[in-house]
Amino acid sequence: MARVGLTTERLTQAGAELADEVGFEQVTVSALARRFDVKVASLYSHLKSSQDLKSNIALLALEELADRGAAALAGRAGKDALVAFANVYRDYAREHPGRYAAAQLRLSPEAAAVSAGGRHAQMTRAILRGYDLTEPDQTHAVRLLGSVFHGYVSLEMRGGFSHSAPDSQESWSRVLDATDALLRSWPAP
User: Fold this and answer.
1) Is residue 59 in a domain?
2) Is the per-residue pLDDT at 159 higher than 80?
3) What is the pTM assigned to this prediction?
4) Which residues have CB under 8 Å from 116's CB, separation 6+?
5) Is residue 58 part of a domain?
6) In the prediction, which pLDDT does 1 show?
7) Is 1 a domain residue?
8) Cα-to-chain-centroid distance, residue 148
9) Is 177 a domain residue?
10) How far apart (Å, rounded) are the C-alpha atoms in residues 79 and 44?
11) Up-side HSE of residue 143: CA atoms within 13 Å toward CB?
12) Could you tell me which InterPro entries the record lists for this protein (predicted)?
């Protein structure tokens, strides 16, 4: 019988908090059971496996990021929208490093289909409408923005920019300026 008060949603939220504390890779059903001071078996009525827990955390993180992205983009266009959206990813990674890592998890096709990943792509394409890109260049630009945002944030989170001047904030601003300039003068094929 399931322990009173334990739900998939509560376990997912606790797993996300655990991921932020100890790292996403360290999140397991066993670690979660210890957090609730219950036997591992009691969690299996809510979770199929540690992979199921990680997928749930990834879905939660994608949803949180999408909600923040939508709020940041409201009423913005062009470079202002680009910078606001990029800062959502960077700020989220700083606030929730484990969840940010979870958002990078490769989901099953079924989980991906119901995830907020589609919302992320739609918001990125909305930003690109301000740059007047058409297909297939728009898809190339979506991939570029994902690479820039996630690549920079991932390197920064691992301390990759902490050993030299200038400050990583200055580089971030310059990278976004350069990205805006590139999008405004997108090369012809």
Assistant:
1) yes
2) yes
3) 0.91
4) 59, 62, 63, 65, 66
5) yes
6) 39
7) no
8) 13
9) yes
10) 47
11) 6
12) Homeodomain-like_sf, HTH_TetR, MT1864/Rv1816-like_C, Tet_transcr_reg_TetR-rel_C_sf
pLDDT tens, 16-33? 999 999 999 999 999 999
Are 11 and 32 spatial neighbours (Cβ–Cβ below 8 Å)?
A: yes
Q: Which tokens sit at 171? A: 């580089």
The amino acid occupying position 161 is F
CA distance 99 to 89: 11
Domain membership of residue 95 as a residue range: 8-184
For the chain, how big is the Rg over CA atoms in Å?
Answer: 19
Cα dist from 10 to 5, 34, 35, 72, 159, whole Å: 8, 15, 12, 27, 32
- Per-residue pLDDT of 81-128, as tens digits, reads 999 999 999 999 999 999 999 999 999 999 999 999 999 999 999 999
Residue 121 belongs to a domain with what CATH number? 1.10.357.10
For the chain, what is the domain count?
A: 1
Cα separation of 16 and 100, whole Å?
A: 10
Name residues whose C-beta falls within 8 Å of residue 2's C-beta, 6 or more positions apart in sequence: 42, 45, 46
CB 79 within 8 A of CB 180: yes
104: DSSP letter: T
How far apart are alpha carbons 186 and 189 in whole angstroms? 9
State how far the alpha carbon of 103 is from the alpha carbons of 43, 51, 112, 165, 173, in Å.
23, 14, 11, 30, 24
